[in-house]
Design a protein that fits this description.
The complex is a heterodimer of chains A (220) and B (232).
Chain A (H helix, E strand, L loop, with lengths): L13 E10 L2 E11 L4 E5 L6 H9 L6 E6 L2 E2 L4 H6 L1 E4 L11 H12 L4 H10 L15 H14 L4 E5 L7 H16 L3 E5 L10 E5 H7 L1
Parallel strand pairs in A: 3-8, 3-9, 6-7, 7-8
Antiparallel strand pairs in A: 1-2, 1-4, 4-5
Chain B lengths: L4 H24 L1 H21 L4 H24 L4 H6 L1 H6 L5 H30 L7 H26 L8 H25 L5 H30 L1
Helix pairs in contact in B: 1-6, 2-3, 2-6, 3-6, 3-7, 3-8, 6-7, 6-9, 7-8, 7-9, 8-9
The chains are: A alpha/beta (220), B mainly alpha (232).
């Protein structure tokens, strides 16, 4: 599936204007404005506690302690929540994998919540993230890295154009890191957009834009 | 909100998948399944020992005892409703679904009722027998529990949704949930004791039905709003 290249007249996929966030009486960022277009990958960088996770949660709509505007395809995101959510895939620190269920059962539920898919697609996705033969083992018996892979299998079955990933590389082994990097490249090349945080040096074949929250704070 | 046939199908799909998932989790954790009903059984069977084995005395208190125990059994299992989902991030995924949250929360509440409420309803005639409830009051007891216990799940869900993000909850859940659920307890127990005195009970059932209708229509919305606050 491909999302196609954006037409020059299109609005940016995601855009923020004058975004301001304060936590525990400390300003995390102020007058933050950026644009993310289809076919772009943006890495949010900054030291620990600089507000990377807060920013991603605000953009996903999980956190509303902010001021400013978030636009989705040129329109305020709160006015078109349903369209926005059907185009979004968010994987946070807590990856959303139930420990009692098996990887297959977890993925079935995730798929039903967003966009239903067939059992074959789920099987193929689990195979591709290296969980062949683990499909029917309860997730509490899997390692941290394998649990992360269950969550990442969602990327393969989701039709979402925007991926928001919070530290997706933690707990992955060397091969897992490579697989995820190629997955990111594939998504960007098919016209998707990625917004992620990581402390890992990204080795992807597409251009990486950086949003540095530390520099932003120093400048303001 | 768009309501094309396609969205309706996937809303139903998401509702079904959520219900199925929660039941599956409960069946994989046998304790969740057995705890409420075992608790119900234990509490009720302590009354003849603690109060008096005298049939006349037990008959008098039977309706109240069964209803109070049902309420406590429901409260005991409430915490399972969102806790694990909050801790592993599934709750965030639920909130980020494009499907209407009302139906997803409703599915979780129905699953909770099937796990904790329905077994209590099914077990109640046996316990009523232990407490010498007159035979003609059985249908009223079962029916009042059948209408009342879903309300306990639905209103209880609001309380859990509000408190799931708090580190130490202690009694706060009870403080939020009990005022919402005591009317059900009063009317339900009253219906059973009234029928023992040969009084009409239709008005009690009308009231219980009305509370259930209100709970079904607003409680999932309130729970959904509370969940959004809790993950914030």
């Amino acid at each position: 599936m491909s999302f196609g290249a954006p037409a020059p007249t299109d609005f940016p996929l995601l855009q923020t204007r004058q975004l301001f966030c304060e936590r525990d009486e400390r300003v995390l960022f102020s007058s933050l404005g950026f644009e993310l277009n289809q076919g772009e990958l943006m890495q949010v960088v900054g030291s620990n506690g600089s507000g990377k996770t807060s920013l991603l949660r605000i953009l996903a709509g999980l956190n509303d302690h902010y001021e400013g505007e978030i636009l989705w395809r040129g329109e305020p995101v709160e006015e078109q929540r349903e369209q926005f959510l059907s185009s979004l895939l968010y994987i946070g620190h807590r990856v959303g994998v139930n420990r009692i269920l098996t990887p297959r059962e977890n993925l079935r539920w995730s798929a039903a919540l967003h966009a239903p898919c067939t059992d074959e697609q789920i099987e193929a996705a689990l195979n591709r993230v290296g969980l062949r033969a683990y499909e029917d083992i309860p997730c509490r018996n899997l390692s941290a890295g394998q649990t992360q892979r269950v969550a990442l299998a969602r990327l393969l079955i989701s039709p979402a154009v925007l991926w928001i990933l919070d530290e997706p590389f933690t707990t992955l082994d060397v091969q897992g890191v490579k697989d995820l990097e190629s997955l990111l490249t594939w998504h960007v090349e098919r016209g998707g957009a990625v917004l992620l945080t990581t402390h890992h040096a990204l080795a992807v074949e597409c251009e990486v834009r950086r949003l540095n929250l530390d520099e932003l704070r120093r400048a303001s | 909100m768009s309501s094309s046939p396609e969205t309706q199908v996937s809303t139903w799909e998401a509702f079904r998948a959520t219900l199925k998932r929660d039941l599956l989790i409960a069946f994989k954790r046998r304790n969740d399944l057995l705890n409420p009903v075992m608790f119900f059984l234990i509490v009720v069977s302590l009354f003849p020992l603690g109060v008096s084995p005298d049939p006349a005395e037990l008959t008098r208190i039977s309706a109240g005892v069964v209803w109070v125990s049902a309420l406590l059994a429901s409260m005991l299992s409430l915490d399972n409703l969102y806790r694990a989902d909050y801790e592993d991030g599934s709750l965030e995924q639920l909130l980020l679904s494009p499907q209407p949250l009302y139906f997803l929360v409703l599915a979780k509440n129905i699953a909770h009722w099937l796990i904790s409420g329905l077994p209590v309803v099914l077990m109640s005639p046996l316990l009523a027998y232990m407490l010498y409830l007159p035979a003609d009051a059985y249908p009223v007891l079962v029916l009042s529990l059948l209408i009342g216990t879903p309300v306990l799940s639905l209103f209880g869900s609001i309380g859990v949704a509000l408190t799931v993000g708090l580190g130490s909850r202690g009694l706060i859940l009870a403080v939020i949930v009990l005022p919402l659920t005591t009317p059900v307890l009063i009317i339900g127990a009253k219906a059973v004791s009234d029928v023992m005195f040969g009084l009409p009970v239709t008005s009690h059932f009308a009231l219980l039905g009305a509370i259930l209708a209100v709970a079904l229509s607003i409680a999932p919305l309130a729970s959904a709003a509370a969940l959004r606050i809790s993950v914030n």
